[in-house]
Each structure stands twice: as structure tokens, then as C-alpha cells.
Design goal:
By secondary structure, the chain is an all-alpha fold. It is built from 5 helices and no strands.
Length: about 80
């Protein structure tokens, strides 16, 4: 599917269309992940980059990669100690 977005010329005159597309895909992918709409791997695929580059982008944009609270993580670890 292709989606067209109209942007003011003065906003895009200083960038190449390919760069704008790449930035929009990354931004949308980050938003989808942050809002639990897609998995990490699907978000990376949509952004058009490998998962490691996407994780780095998540870190740069303060988007959590692991959606678990500190308490939940501690409970998981405590359960693993019982094995």
C-alpha cells in the first residue's frame, strides 16, 4: 500500500524525498512499537532497517524495547531461581 502525505514545500525543500520517506517510516515504526501495535521485528521491517539498528533508534528516541516493569522482571527472575 502507498500513502501520500502533502507537506508544505518550505518544509521539504531542504531534503531529498528518499530521506523524508526514511524518516517518516522510522518515526511511524517507533510510534507503532511504543503504542504496542506491532512487534519489535515488524517495526524494524517497516522502518526498513535491521533489528539492531532499530533497537539503537529506540534508545535514541526513548522508546522502550522491553515492555515489562521492574517488579515484573524481579518476579520473573525470582521464579527462575526456583528452577
Amino acid at each position: 500500500m502507498q500513502i501520500a502525505v502533502n507537506l508544505p514545500n518550505d518544509f521539504v525543500d531542504f531534503q531529498l524525498a528518499e530521506d523524508i520517506e526514511k524518516e517518516m517510516r522510522l518515526s511511524y515504526s517507533l510510534w507503532l512499537l511504543k503504542n504496542a501495535r506491532v512487534t519489535l521485528s515488524k517495526a524494524a521491517e517497516l522502518a526498513g532497517i535491521n533489528i539492531y539498528e532499530f533497537i539503537a533508534a529506540c534508545k535514541q528516541n526513548d522508546v522502550p524495547v522491553i515492555d515489562i516493569s521492574k517488579e515484573e522482571l524481579l518476579e520473573e527472575l525470582a521464579g527462575m531461581n526456583g528452577l
